[in-house]
Each structure stands twice: as C-alpha cells, then as structure tokens.
Amino acid sequence: MKFFIDTANLNDIQEAQSLGVLDGVTTNPSLMAKEGITGKANILKHYVAICEIVDGDVSAEVISTDFEGMVKEGEELAALHPQIVVKLPMIADGVRACKYFSSKGIRTNVTLVFSAGQALLAAKAGATYVSPFLGRLDDISTDGMNLISEIREIYDNYEYKTQILSASIRHTMHIVNCAKVGSDVMTGPLSAIKGLLKHPLTDIGLNQFIEDAKKMNI
Ligand code: E4P
C-alpha cells in the first residue's frame, strides 16, 4: 500500500519523506488555507515546493465547480510539475472533467467520495485515484471501512485500474485496516503515520539491549 501524507505543511512533508516511506502528498483548499497560503502565485509556488520535497504524486485541487473552470484550472495545475495530479470534486461536472483529463493523459484524483456508486462513476470516468473519506463517514456513525471494502470488491470485479486512495484517515488503526482490506493508497496526517512505529515492547526491548550492550565493553 502506498503512503501519502495529507497536508500542505512543508515541515511535516519533509519529516515523512525523511522516514523513507512516503509515496506522495494530498492537499485540499482547507489544508492550503491552514498554512496561510494566499494569492494564486503563492499557491502555485507552494505546490511546486511540495513536488520538490517528495518523490511521488501530489494532488492539487481545483476550486471551480463548473466544467470549463475545472478544465482551465486543472490544465494550469498539471503544467506546473510532472508530479501534479488534478483533484476534482465528485459532482457531475467533476466527472466530466475527469473523463476529459483522462483522455488527455492527465492524472486525476476524484475527491469527496462517500458511496460505492460515486466510486464506480469515478472509475468509469478514468480517474487515476478515487478518494473515499473514511474518517468523515465514521464521524457520522457510518462504517467508513466498509465503503473501502465495497469499492475494492467492485473494482476487482471489473479490473478497474483506478486506485483506491483512502482519505480522511484519522489514526493509525485506520491505516492498518486500509491495508487489510486492500486499499491501494492511504493518505493521512504525520501523527497517524508515526503511530505505526509505536509499541511498548519495542521500547522495553531496546532499553534492555542497550543496558546489556554496556556489559560487553565495546
Ligand atoms: C483527501 O484528499 C482530503 O484531503 C482529506 O483526507 C480530508 O480529510 P479530513 O476529513 O480529515 O478533512
């Protein structure tokens, strides 16, 4: 399973990259706003800065909600850097734009997916990635992980090439469960990725080894 980090924070991206396990980055307008990035030129520059840190796909989301606007913005984003993937909302014009970009060989990530039917549409439109938001489904007492399993089953039935990019990951067990049900990619915060490292027996065992190594007088 590929690991993407879901942030526009350059320090977090750098830290995840230095772990050696990072495969890409996803951003969205909320994450960009959180970093205080304003103005089109700065936004575009920030996407390029992200691409220069990570060796993998970087999703940059369009703001427009009409087909023509999405095409214009998406083409501009895709031209920024070869690692950019155009992120499009799961609405009718977004599906149309996805089909348009896939016919031009421009990679896409269809976002704000909350049902298997929406994921089926994204695959038919040739999306490179589909982003089901599992955390936000869990937030409203719906089984987010079940959606990932449903999409896996549907995509496997028809051998769709669209990659399942499990998004809205909130914690470490989301990552482990995504891997168990066969998600192709997960995107989550640095804290959830670093959580995978933790086990008290590892710490206890390492302390013991360090203490015993002192007895060897190396
Ligand atoms: C996905 O691409 C989104 O950026 C993201 O995962 C949304 O997560 P949130 O529900 O934590 O905002």
TrEMBL record:
GO MF entry, a single one: transaldolase activity
Catalytic reaction annotation: D-sedoheptulose 7-phosphate + D-glyceraldehyde 3-phosphate = D-erythrose 4-phosphate + beta-D-fructose 6-phosphate
Alphabetic keyword roster: Cytoplasm, Pentose shunt, Schiff base, Transferase
Cellular localization per UniProt: Cytoplasm
Principal subcellular localisation of the protein: cytoplasm
Pathway: Carbohydrate degradation; pentose phosphate pathway; D-glyceraldehyde 3-phosphate and beta-D-fructose 6-phosphate from D-ribose 5-phosphate and D-xylulose 5-phosphate (non-oxidative stage): step 2/3
Protein name: Probable transaldolase
Organism: Flavobacterium hydrocarbonoxydans
